[in-house]
Amino acid sequence: MKLISLAFFFLFCIAVRAQNFMVYDLSCEHKTNPMGIVELQPRLSWKIKSSERDMLQSAYQLRLASDDKFSKKNMVWESGKTSSDESVLVSYKGPALQTAKRYYWQVKVWNGKNKESAWSRPAFFETGLIGLNDWKAQWIEPVQDTTRHIPALMVRKEFSLQKKIASARLYVTSHGFYEFYINGQRVGDYLLTPGWTSYQKRLQYQVYDITGLLNQGKNAAGAMLGDGWYRGSLGWVVNWGIWGKKLGLLGQVHIRYTDGTEELLITDNTWKGTQEGPIVANGIYDGEQYDATKEIPNWNKIGFDDASWKSVQVATYDNSNLIAMETVPVRKIKELTPVKIFRTPKGTLVADMGQNMVGWVRLKVKGNAGQTITVRHAEVLDKFGEFYTKNLRGASASLHYTLKGGETETYEPRFTFMGFRYVALDSFPGELSPSSITGIVVHSDMPVNGTFACSDSLVNQLQHNIEWGQRGNFLDVPTDCPQRDERLGWTGDAQAFCRTAAFNMDVSAFFTKWLKDLAADQYPDGQVPFVIPDVLKNNSGTSAGWGDVSTIAPWTMYQVYGDKKILETQYPSMKAYVEYIRKKAGDSSIWKGGSVFGDWLYYKPRMESHTEPDGYTNPDMIATAFYAYSAKLLSQAAAVLNKTEDEKSYQGVFEKVKEAFNKNYVTSEGRIFSDSQTGYVLALMFDLLPQAMQPKATAYLTEDIKRRRNHLSTGFLGTPYLCHVLSQHGQTPVAYDLLLQQSFPSWLYPVKMGATTIWERWDGQKTDSTFQDAGMNSFNHYAYGAIGDWMYRVVAGIEIGKPGYKHILIQPQPDKRISFAKASYESSYGTIASGWEIKDNNFVFSVTVPANTTATVQLPNTETEKVKESGKSLQAVFKDVKQVGKNVQIELGSGTYIFEYSLSFTEKNLLP
Ligand code: BGC
Description:
Layout: H1 2-19, E1 21-28, E2 35-37, E3 43-50, E4 59-65, E5 75-78, E6 82-83, E7 90-91, E8 102-110, E9 123-127, E10 139-141, E11 153-161, E12 165-175, E13 177-182, E14 185-186, E15 203-209, E16 217-226, H2 228-231, E17 248-257, E18 262-266, E19 272-274, E20 279-283, E21 287-291, E22 310-311, E23 313-315, E24 322-324, E25 330-336, E26 340-343, E27 349-365, E28 372-378, E29 380-381, E30 387-388, E31 398-402, E32 409-411, E33 418-426, E34 437-444, E35 450-454, H3 457-473, E36 474-475, E37 477-478, H4 491-504, H5 508-521, H6 549-561, H7 564-585, H8 619-640, H9 644-665, H10 677-685, H11 694-707, H12 719-728, H13 732-740, H14 748-752, H15 788-795, E38 798-802, E39 807-810, E40 820-827, E41 830-839, E42 842-849, E43 854-859, E44 868-869, E45 872-873, H16 874-877, E46 880-884, E47 887-892, E48 895-902
Helix pairs in contact: 4-6, 4-15, 5-6, 5-7, 6-7, 7-8, 8-9, 10-11, 10-12, 12-13
The structure holds beta-D-glucopyranose (BGC).
């Protein structure tokens, strides 16, 4: 396998060299070869690889056809040579696209010297069911008990196909989870479908290519239905069947025969169903109960006798909520083998997966029919080494598997997931070996985009923990935690983490979908519910820093992906939120009562310490600061969308709130009420202070950090911006003090305690190994992982110059306590890389800028004459070099560059 990819890589390099540049990695609406596109003008993107520096696209040509040979007769659209440097999210402008059809497309580009590339390899997208009338299927509901949690349901149907099949597609969705089968084989590898949305308003359907699964002649289709988010229990209050109490399925198969004719098969009253299957109980929080003795062999194959199954009922729903799948599917991403199997002091048999992970286990077991194994899940062991599940609160997160007996049995649950590192097995027959238990890591299949590494192994473990926090909590919606009876789309957590998330993985499609659910669930008065989808309903409302995800996340996505459409789509929601606050704040411009959660989980000293102040920040000050920030982002979004009046008006709102903020919360000496780190951080980050006051506020902030012996005291709202504010105000060494701090409260304290994910609290586990309050103590909560974006943007120095990284700023701020740092980021244009190393006071700094972008690179603490690029003087290589303060600034085009110079450190071991 490796050899093959190596061979491809060499061929690719040869191709690039032969033509100097080539087009690759084509995508449509942020996805590779997507099925189910319903946009009328889908947007196409491509990347360019060039063996020469300074590659800029001067023109492109697109063509789109109904076959991948692009024959004249099947050509749908040719753009002609179009002068443009756009290569990301370029709109299709051809004739109207047909429903349920595959289109192939390719592109070629010209460089600045009008030299032409070869055509790219073809890519495709396939349209979904564009019109509501394209849905012919009927909702089917097997006879079921709607008064309680029920076993998973099964439905089936046999049918005959008389002719040779050219292609076949399945369009399917459900109330509850579904797994679809054709002739005994599982369709596709998507999990927990149809995904989690605000179901009454938006219900996704999936599209599958099932050509290879069907036979000419007899066929059988079947599906299993589980409670899922739709019908299961959600939220910590007793709350089930939020969207409905009946499970159902809607599916249709489109078949094209080789003779050109077509056939449509639909779910209807000819299907049959049963409630008597092996999945006796299933739930997101509680796990699964599977009785293998109740398995129904061959139920999804032809020839099965379903005489005892009951005919399904047909139901009518208003299908206007049906939408094609917008996000990437949830899949099995990795498998983990236990690193240790042991018995606790009290004798519990435990497997340690070595990593706090989310998904489930696959068991291999041999035993007697009727015997039941219980599998429990935990994130941590207590100080005595015992299995600890109290912090899961009401979630039993267990599997109960009843053996059928005989040969070795393999079992994996389907309609649940767990957050765990340790697995306890009760009544496991025989010896438990590592091969009997496998951890299946499950999450939204977002391409991994970013890497960060440096010379400090604890910081590297922190980066690992951030990444795994994301793996565990980006499961169709951005959740707070994956283990206890919560696992909800908490808005504040997503707000804090979205920029970091976008560095690690491609979250464009993921947030596109979730933000639409946010807009769908937003209250008529503009309030953004605490969680999206809104399962808390009447127990919800807006809290500052939580509701602001409605402005912050779309703005972030626009910055990162250059995607204007996401701003356009979210704009009414952004505006409604700011208008809601505006009404609440009224003429005072102070948002009183707007912060329900404050600076959530800010540092509180332990009982024994009476000398240290806590990190408390006045909630109205927080609310007013976020009000100003959201108004500013709204004004900026309006500017991008050419809404000039709104731009002016919300800039005006910002100015007014800023004035009120200063009047109410800032002293003439620049002290901010309530003198907390978060207070200074928000004021500085959101540009709320007059210029002259900024150095003073920065000084109070750094004094507070010093007084706390280089410790932070921020919560969910201050933490993401803390190091950025320090760096923006000339205090990067203090930011490094915080990053490298190992004692509580700090990012590295959990790392030192053995964490493999980010903890909800700074001291989830205390130094004496006891735990924080079990009522709220998750060990997989990504919010504090928001430091990740400072590591990419400041330590490695990869920063956005123009939206979508069309222009890149590469401006690392090194510190000698770290001898090297390197990061790469796969942008929409290609790979951006920045890496530096300090060796005997020699600074080696390498930079990669993708084709069709430009960059401003800042070489820290040096002068032009002292620097060599790949052995040559800067003037010999670059046209645009200048000294900016203590740094050298160079404007450059695409390519890879290696700068080298000797670096002097003034103060102790820090850069000036
Ligand atoms: C969640 C948080 C969330 C918070 C609101 C918690 O229960 O786990 O992450 O943001 O409530 O304060």
